[in-house]
Amino acid sequence: MLTRPLTQSLTPQCCSAPAITISQADAALPQSLVSRAAVSTAPPYYDNIGYADLSDFFYVWLRRSLKDIHPDLFSTLLVPKANELVATPYRFGGSRDAARTHFEEGLHEAFVRLREASHPDFPLTIYYAFKQSEDEGDEDGEDLGTASTGWETMLEGLIQACFSIVGTWPVRTENSSRQRAQGSNALASSVVLVCRPRPEDAQQIRRRDFQDRLHEELPPALRTLQQGGIAPVDLAQSAIGPGMAIFSRYRRVLEADGSAMPVRTALLLINQVLDTFFAEQEGEFDQETRWALSWFEQQGCREGPYGDAESLSKAKDVGLGRLVERGVLSAQAGKVRLLRPQEILGTNPSSHPTAWEAVQHLAGAIASGEEAAADAYQKLGAAASDLARDLAYRLYALCERQGWAEEALPYNMLVSSWRGITALVEQRRRRRDDGLRQGKIAP
User: Fold this and answer.
1) What whole-number distance in Å separates Cα of residue 432 and Cα of residue 214?
2) 159, 162, 374, 406: which one has the fewest Cβ atoms less than 10 Å from its Cβ?
3) Residues 165, 169, 171, CA angle at the centre, nearest 5°?
4) Which pLDDT value is given to residue 360?
5) pLDDT tens digit string along 185-208?
6) Can you give the pTM of this predicted structure?
7) Could you give the C-alpha distances from 382 to 127, 347, 378, in angstroms and in order?
8) Beta carbons within 8 Å of 282's beta carbon, 6+ residues apart
């Protein structure tokens, strides 16, 4: 949302290409948009970034030197903020409700105008990378997981403007070395939503039917995201796309009382399916890994009572002594503790490593780079499989839920680098095979 129009024509000097016109205007005003246009946009991120406030830092200095040259651009003492589409309560007397209403209404108006202006042959594409989680239940008090205010508000405006999500692409857009990402679980990807006007004859379905479709269609989409190397920190955000694609294809999803399901409830149900997806993957792990995963969920890498660990080991039919022998568990003085990846770094895996061992060795090595992780991958043999990658996803999800940012980072790094690691291993294998064929390497 921009405060005043600005138009500039650029004529290329190097070729005979037509002049380019660059304009800025309020997207909620119909006369400001070109009709039958291909629209690709990144909407504002709720209350996450106050662009006008940030601009003041530079504006005051630019105004001192340029106000006589561009008086129309620097006519105010500070950057105008009244029309900026952000949900900042301090601009509304501290009222969060008023700020939210301002954002919702403005975003809805913008999407309505974009729908009117969009060319029918081209989809609307939206780039979004907002991360904000809130633990809440639905209106009946059912605890469903986490929702996101930023996503909720943006999607509500999109759906109210009668758009349907027909495709989603996670795109690696954020530099992991940027200051915002250092030492935090900041998003590494944006999610591109591909939207088209929802057909006027779209059906409506009941809540139970919507949940059935989520359980049927979302897990294959999640497996595709995992196989594509989407970082764990981005998986929950990326899952919103295919989940909301199901929700938005219908005119309404009806609750038991006949009311329309809000976007917030749909997001909570999508995250519930995501949790179920991870839980079902646990059945594929070996017994020792399942014990370690259960203990990690309770204690993380902190010390816990030996008696509690032994009770869990009996339930999982696992011997604690075996886990100590494998070098993943410390047991002494009546206390038990899972070793951190950095504590395992430099040790050799057992002869038949479990999925847990594989992940811890790889997570410890990745801190030294993909070459070091590729060395560990080769030592682990068959244990370094897609099952280990799935476990890293699960461990990250557990860490994020518990707020263990430091413990989560190695698992996020491991999955993000998985394709690079496996490519290095394959490259080494081909070089070795070529050397054997050419007689340069002894069998």
Assistant:
1) 46
2) 406
3) 140
4) 94
5) 344 457 888 999 999 899 999 999
6) 0.70
7) 39, 18, 9
8) 290, 293, 394
